[in-house]
Amino acid sequence: MSPLPPDNHVHTEWSWDAVAGSMERSCAEAVRLGLPSIAFTEHVDATRWVLAPEVRDLMPTGRVGADGRFDPAALDIEGYLACVGRCRDRFPGLRILSGVELGEPHWFAEASAALLATGDFDRVLGSLHSLEIGGELWLVDHLYMAGAPEGVSPEGIVRAYLHEVLHLVESSAAFEVLAHIDYPVRLWGAEKPFDPAEFEDEYRAVLRALAGSGRALEVNTRLQFRPELVRWWYEEGGEAVSFGSDAHRPDRVAHEFADAADMVTAQGFCAGGDPHGFWLRR
């Protein structure tokens, strides 16, 4: 079996939504699996989401404003970096990378730049979790719920998502990896199975722009990542692939990485000379 690639997308107790997260236990799992490195890319979200009624009481205590919108907790950078330092001391054989996952950084360019200036982050992911529907900002997950705006369909969510991801990629936001391009498929609720070919033009537009920006595409294993997306990435000139489990608890670190590595290899990418780096096109 080939060595597993690095896990460049892991959340711990320092992310507002990782209630079962643990940096220390995630490091121990990475060592057990034989990973060359692990990157703790904690959430940085500034979008104030309107909440579907059925989830308001499920959100973290004290984070729902009087206007009914959700305020994600800010990242405690000092505490987070101190924890990274402690784990580096405890696991000297594991390369531990610091990082952040910036949510909608093209909407919050100044705030994102200011945050990046406060710390030396090894991995910076850019991601989209939100869409503007009817003048309100919604978490994509909540758009699949009964309390979402009328007329929103799974197909419409995916197309709107890819349209906004294109704006993110075309922006000057400072990130090196586009995270979970398939994010809206996680709660796909249409009667027919999801088929990326129905959205090929939209996917290719994003991938073409991403390749032109010099950034890497993340193969996110939260879902089984579709090989078509990696093939289109290769065909559109993409140079690098990053692997991310998007783990929010230790037992999900490097989830399904062996299968993902085989799939990526079959689409024309392979490990580079740096075991801690991205996989590159052959």
The termini sit apart by 20 Å
Element order: H for helix, E for strand: EHEEEHEHEEEHEHEHEHEE
In CATH's first tier, which class applies? Alpha Beta
Strand content: 15-25%
> Radius of gyration in whole Å, from Cα?
18 Å
What order do the helices and strands come in, and which of them pair?
Blueprint: E1 7-10, H1 23-33, E2 37-44, E3 49-50, E4 69-70, H2 77-90, E5 95-103, H3 109-116, E6 123-127, E7 130-133, E8 136-139, H4 154-170, E9 177-178, H5 200-213, E10 216-220, H6 227-235, E11 240-244, H7 257-266, E12 269-271, E13 279-281
Parallel strand pairs: 1-2, 2-5, 5-6, 6-9, 9-10, 10-11
Antiparallel strand pairs: 3-4, 7-8, 11-13, 12-13
Helix pairs in contact: 4-5
Q: Could you characterize the architecture of this molecule?
A:
- The chain is α/β, with parallel strands linked by helices.
- It has a single domain, classed as Metal-dependent hydrolases (TIM Barrel, Alpha-Beta Barrel), CATH 3.20.20.140.
- Helices cover 29% and strands 20% of the residues.
- It is built from seven helices and 13 strands.
- It has helices at 23-33, 77-90, 109-116, 154-170, 200-213, 227-235, 257-266, and strands at 7-10, 37-44, 49-50, 69-70, 95-103, 123-127, 130-133, 136-139, 177-178, 216-220, 240-244, 269-271, 279-281.
- The protein is globular and about 50 Å long.
